[in-house]
Automatic annotation (TrEMBL):
CDD domains: 4HBT (cd00586). This is Acyl-CoA thioesterase. One of its GO terms (molecular function) is fatty acyl-CoA hydrolase activity. InterPro entries: 4-hydroxybenzoyl-CoA_TE (IPR050563), HotDog_dom_sf (IPR029069). It comes from Haemophilus haemolyticus. Belongs to the 4-hydroxybenzoyl-CoA thioesterase family. Keywords: Hydrolase.
C-alpha cells in the first residue's frame, strides 16, 4: 500500500531560461537545474519571512544533505518555466519536492527534491528537530496546510 505524502505548503516561481544557462544546442546544461530549485526555494523562504539572513540571525545554517533530480525533457533557451515547490517535511528537516514545467505547454521537464538539515552555527551540531523559529514561520504562512 502506497501512502500519499502530505504537502504542508505549495508555491510557484516563474523564470525564463537565459542564454548563459544553455549549451551550443540551446539546451540548458544539467547542472543549472539545481540553481532554479534554489531560486524557487529562496522565493518561498522570502514569502514565509525566513530567509538565509534570518536563519543565520537565529544561529543556524541549513546545508543541503540530499538532492535528487529526474530529467524528463530538456529546458531550452528562452523557454518560460514554472518551478512548482512543495514543502513535504518541516519538523525534522526541510524537505522540498519540485516539478519544473513548461509554461506554454504544461509539460513536465524535471522533477526533484532537496533535503536540508539545520546545523548550529557555533557548535556545528546537526539539529534533528528543526528550530522553533523555522516551524513557526512555516505554520504562519497563509497557505500552510496542517495535517
Amino acid at each position: 500500500m502506497k501512502f500519499k505524502k502530505h504537502v504542508y505548503c505549495y508555491d510557484e516561481s516563474e523564470y525564463e531560461i537565459p542564454f548563459f544557462d544553455v549549451d551550443s544546442m540551446n539546451i540548458m546544461w544539467h547542472g543549472h537545474y539545481v540553481k532554479y530549485l534554489e531560486l524557487a526555494r529562496c522565493a518561498f523562504l522570502e514569502r514565509i519571512n525566513y530567509t538565509y539572513d534570518v536563519m543565520r540571525k537565529n544561529g543556524y545554517g541549513w546545508p543541503i544533505v540530499q538532492l535528487n533530480l529526474k530529467y524528463i525533457r530538456p529546458a531550452l533557451f528562452r523557454q518560460k518555466i514554472c518551478v512548482q515547490l512543495q514543502l513535504v517535511e518541516y519538523e525534522s528537516c526541510a524537505r522540498f519536492d519540485y516539478t519544473i514545467i513548461d509554461i506554454a505547454t504544461g509539460e513536465r521537464l524535471t522533477q526533484g527534491s532537496t533535503t536540508q538539515m539545520a546545523v548550529d552555527i557555533n557548535t556545528r551540531e546537526t539539529q534533528f528537530q528543526t528550530p522553533l523559529s523555522f516551524r513557526k514561520a512555516v505554520e504562519s504562512y497563509i497557505a500552510f496546510q496542517p495535517r
